[in-house]
Amino acid sequence: MPSLPRMTWDRPHLLGLEELTRDEIVTVLDLAEHFTHDSQERRKKRANLAGKVVVNLFFEPSTRTRMSFSLAARRLGADVLDFSPSGSSTSKGETFIDTAKNIEAMGIDLVIVRHAATGAPHLLAQHLQAGVINAGDGAHEHPTQGLLDIFTIRQIRGHLDGLTVGLVGDIAHSRVARSNIHGLTKLGAKIIVCGPPTLVPRGIEELGVEVSHSLDAILPRCDVINMLRIQFERQRSGLFPSITEYARLFGMDSARLKKAKPDLLLLAPGPINRGVEITPEVADGPHSAILKQVTNGLAVRMAVLHLLCGQPEEMA
Ligand code: NCD
User: Fold this and answer.
1) Does 229 sit in the ligand 1 pocket, CB within 6 Å?
2) Do 151 and 99 fall within a single domain?
3) Which of 1, 104, 162, 181 has its C-alpha lying 20 to 30 A from 237's C-alpha?
4) Closest residue CA from atom 12 of ligand 1
5) Is 65 in the pocket of ligand 1 (CB under 6 A)?
6) Is 116 found in the same domain as 31?
7) Alpha helical stretches, state H, the chain
8) Residue 153 shares a structural domain with residue 131
9) How confident is the model over 174-221, as pLDDT tens digits?
10) Active-site residue flag, 46
C-alpha cells in the first residue's frame, strides 16, 4: 500500500468546520485523497490507529455516518465500540456526561458523538480526556458530512474556488447546511441558500451567503446543488403548506433540471425523501453524486481519524 504523506492537525477534537482554518480543511481533503486509493485495495488494513479505541456514541439515528466511522476506524486498525441509548443505562437515568465518562474509563482514545442537542460534543470535549468528533449536534454542525461534500465537489470539478453552490431546502434545521457554509466559503466558493422563508433563518446573510426563495431563479447560476432533507423530526408543524407544494417549488425533477447548467453536480447528504426533495429518476441519474458521497465519506473519515489520533507509519 502506498505510504501516507506526513500531515498533521494541531487540534485534539473536530467539533465544527467553523473553527477549522482553510489550510486544515485542505489538509484533510488531501489526506482523504490518499485513502480513496485504499478503498481499491480493500482487504488491506493500515495500522496507524493500532491499539487505539474509538467509540460511537450515537443518541440519534444514523446509517451512513455511524457505519462509515466504524469502517474507517477499523481500516486504520482501531478497536471500535458501539453505544446505543436504547438498552443502555441512560434509560435508567444516567446522565449524558456520566455515560460518557464511564465509557471513557474503559480506556477510550476517541469519542464520535451524535446528539439532538446543539453543543453536546463541545460539552464532552470539556469533560473528557479523549478526543471528540462531532457526528451531528442538533441543527448546528456535522463537520465530516461537510468535508465529504466538499471533497466530492473538488474530486468531480477539480477545484472549489469560484464555484457557485446552492444549498436548497430546510436550511433552518440542517447541520449539514451550516458545515457546508463554513467550509465552502473558506475555500472560495459562493453560496446561495434557497428555501421557503420559514425554513431560511433570518440573518444567515451574516455568514457570507446569498439568500433566495426561488429555486428556479438560482438554478441557472449554480455549478453544484446540495439538496437538503426536510428535517421533519426537528420542525414544529406549519412551516410550509404541504409536502406536494414544497416538492413543486423546491424539489428537483427532470423538468427543472433542464433549466440548470448541463454539468450541474447534484449532492444530497442522505437519507433522501424520494419524491420530496428529489425525484427517483434525478436521484439515480447522471447529475447525482449521492452514492459517490457515501464512498468518499469513508476516505474523509479515515483522514479525520488519522489527523486526530493516528501514528506515523513507521511507528504504527
Ligand atoms: C444528515 C444528518 O444526520 O444530519 N445525514 C447524514 O449524516 N448523512 C442529514 C440528514 O439527516 O438529513
Assistant:
1) yes
2) no
3) 181
4) 229
5) yes
6) yes
7) 22-40, 64-75, 96-104, 120-127, 143-157, 175-186, 215-218, 243-250, 254-257, 280-283, 290-309
8) no
9) 999 999 999 999 999 999 999 999 999 999 999 999 999 999 999 999
10) no
Quick one: 191 and 118 in the same domain?
A: no
Residue-level pLDDT at 5: 79
Could you tell me the distance, in angstroms and rounded to a whole number, from the CA of residue 272 to the centre of ligand 1? 9
Asked if residue 201 and residue 111 are part of one domain, the reply reads no
Residue 5 resides in a domain: no
Q: Mind listing the pLDDT tens digit for each residue in 282-303?
A: 999 999 999 999 999 999 999 9
Has 64 been annotated as catalytic? yes
In this prediction, residues 253-273 reach a mean pLDDT of: 96
- 301 among known catalytic residues: no
Q: Characterize the bridge pairing of strands 110-115 and 131-137.
A: parallel
The predicted-structure confidence for 154-181, as pLDDT tens digits, reads as follows 999 999 999 999 999 999 999 999 999 9
**Confidence (pTM):** 0.95
- Atom of ligand 1 minimally distant from the CA of 64: 8
Q: What's the gap in Å between 231 CA and the centre of ligand 1?
A: 9
Taking all residues of the chain, what is their mean pLDDT, rounded to a whole number?
Answer: 93
CB 32 within 8 A of CB 300: yes
What is the DSSP-derived secondary structure letter of residue 235? Answer: P
The alpha carbon of 313 and the centre of ligand 1 are apart by a number of angstroms equal to 33
258 shares a domain with 163: yes
Could you tell me the residue range of the domain that residue 236 belongs to? 143-293
Q: In what order do the strands lie in the sheet with 210-212?
A: 210-212, 190-194, 164-168, 224-227, 265-267
pLDDT for 52 beyond 70: yes
Question: Any idea what the CATH number is for the domain that residue 209 is in?
Answer: 3.40.50.1370
**What is the CB neighbour count within 10 angstroms for residue 200?**
22
In the chain, what percentage of residues exceed pLDDT 70? 96
263 shares a domain with 214: yes
Domain count, the chain: 2
Predicted local distance difference test score (pLDDT) of residue 26: 97
**Statement: residue 40 has pLDDT above 80:** no
Does residue 270 line the site of ligand 1, with CB under 6 A?
Answer: yes
Cis peptide before 196 (omega within 30 of 0): no
